[in-house]
Design brief:
The protein has 22 helices and 4 strands. By secondary structure, the protein is mainly alpha-helical. Among the domains are: 67 residues, 434 Repressor (Amino-terminal Domain); 112 residues. It has a 4-stranded mixed beta sheet with strand order 1-4-2-3. The C terminus is likely disordered.
Length: 467
């Protein structure tokens, strides 16, 4: 579904959820009902003022307008476009992943267009080399990402896993230990350091499975599912929801083969989380409810799925249902902590408060959201460097919405530091929203400093580029 079709679909869903006819919405928005029909059928694009007005009339709290802004993002998906890069550090822009899960040649970078907006642009790795920024790209992406490097790395990794007995281990134990190390790396340093290795290890597992039998074969398939879900998470954090969805679908298929209901439930819950991240008004609640039906009663997985459902209700503008779901999760935390399964052990009071804050922001309650994000950040355990950056960026967005620009810019600078360290696309997306929100206060020193620092991390379109 194209961004234009997606916007029309969400417009129709919101209108119907509010119990409004096309003519009724036309009267309130003062837009001809025939135009509204064309908007919903993706036959015509609304202009900026119409999109903002429809968002307001339908009580979408900015969600519908944000989706409208993404319609022209498809302009960026041209692999060979010439781009010019700011002279200052571009590590953040060039540390991002391949656009397609199966294509090792393209990487996506945040790009500032001439109209001031920020979009993700798929660039060809060889084009980057020709434009003189190849060294930065190669260093940032890492040797494990290109197809040529992967082809030579995987056989050596396979041999090492098969020879794990030299270290007093088995191939399965070796691969489990490696996954834990990669998770720790992602938590501390962000996804760009792990993406190539995780993809390689999926190939390693598939190679070893060819000769495995019995319980080893099943254990390897379970590990392959876990690596697939982890790779989905990495792509989600790198700002590539298409690749994230692809790997979650693979993980769901593999988990069904394993026959582990807890593992399948976890993957289903992750699908709900991804739907929330992409502001999917329909699937986020449906997927979260499906995960709860799959989960064991009063389990940690059931609480996790309910957490994602809470955010889905907030996206749909239902504050009461969202708060009710958060209260349910809070009440379930003590029992969930005693759950012996390994899934979602990070569910704690801080994580729940973060999702409450996200819901408050989606509902337009910016002051409450900013305070909730601050409380969640204080409760965070050590070692979650990248996630702390995500929450700082979201707190800054909420502060901008609450008309506290200096504080928003100061916290945004902290989040930008983490973004540059980790290459997290989730942080970059939040900072792009913050950058735009702060335009009315751009003459304030703190705001100007943040916007200049953020701009320096972006690839830039020139007036002569046609992307």
């Amino acid at each position: 579904m194209s961004p234009l079709h997606n916007w029309g679909y969400e417009l129709r869903e919101l209108r119907q959820m509010r119990g409004m006819t096309l003519r009724g919405l036309a009267r309130q928005a003062r837009i001809d009902h025939s135009h509204l029909g064309r908007f919903e059928r993706a036959e015509r694009k609304a202009d900026r003022s119409q999109a903002a007005l429809l968002d307001q009339v339908l009580g979408a709290n900015g969600m519908l307008f944000r989706l409208w802004e993404r319609i022209d993002d498809q302009r960026g998906h041209v692999a060979s476009s010439p781009v010019h890069v700011a002279k200052s550090s571009v590590d953040l822009a060039l540390s991002l992943p391949e656009q397609a899960a199966s294509d090792g040649e393209g990487i996506s970078v945040p790009c500032r267009l001439t109209d001031g907006s920020v979009v993700w642009v798929a660039l060809d790795r060889r084009a980057l080399l020709r434009t003189g920024v190849g060294l930065g790209a190669t260093a940032a992406v890492g040797a494990g990402s290109p197809a040529s490097a992967t082809a030579s790395a995987v056989p050596a990794l396979v041999r090492k896993a098969r020879d794990a007995s030299a270290y007093g281990s088995t191939p399965v134990e070796h691969l489990r230990r490696t996954r834990r190390l990669l998770i720790d790396t992602d938590n501390l340093l962000g996804p760009r350091r792990a993406v190539g290795a995780v993809r390689d290890y999926i190939d390693v597992i598939q190679e070893i499975r060819r000769d495995a039998k019995g319980s080893d074969r099943r254990d390897l398939m379970e590990l392959q599912t876990q690596y697939g879900e982890f790779l989905s998470w990495i792509y989600q954090d790198l700002g590539n929801p298409q690749a994230a969805s692809y790997w979650l679908d693979r993980a769901m298929q593999w988990s069904t083969t394993v026959g582990d209901n807890d593992l399948s439930t976890y993957v289903m819950a992750r699908k709900a989380q991804l739907a929330g991240d992409t502001a999917d008004l329909i699937d986020v609640v449906d997927l979260a409810e499906a995960a709860q039906r799959m989960a064991r009663p009063r389990s940690r997985l059931a609480a996790i799925a309910r957490t994602y459902e809470a955010y889905g209700h907030a996206l749909r503008g239902d504050a009461d249902e969202s708060e009710r779901a958060i209260d349910d999760v809070r009440n379930a935390l003590d029992g969930a902590a005693a759950d012996p399964t390994p899934w979602g052990v990070w569910l704690n009071a801080s994580y729940v408060e973060v999702h409450r804050a996200q819901g408050l922001e989606a509902l337009g309650k910016h002051d409450e959201a900013a305070a909730a994000f601050a409380a969640a950040i204080r409760l965070m355990p050590d070692g979650y460097h990248r996630d702390r950056g995500v929450y700082l960026a979201r707190q800054a967005v909420a502060l901008a919405g609450a008309r506290a620009p200096e504080q928003a810019a100061t916290i945004g600078m902290h989040a930008l530091t983490v973004a540059e360290d980790t290459g997290s696309g989730r942080i970059t997306n939040e900072l792009a929203q913050l950058d735009k929100s702060l335009i009315p206060w751009q003459r304030l020193p703190e705001v100007g400093e943040f916007r200049a620092a953020f701009d320096a991390t972006l690839v830039h379109e020139t007036e002569t580029d046609l992307i």
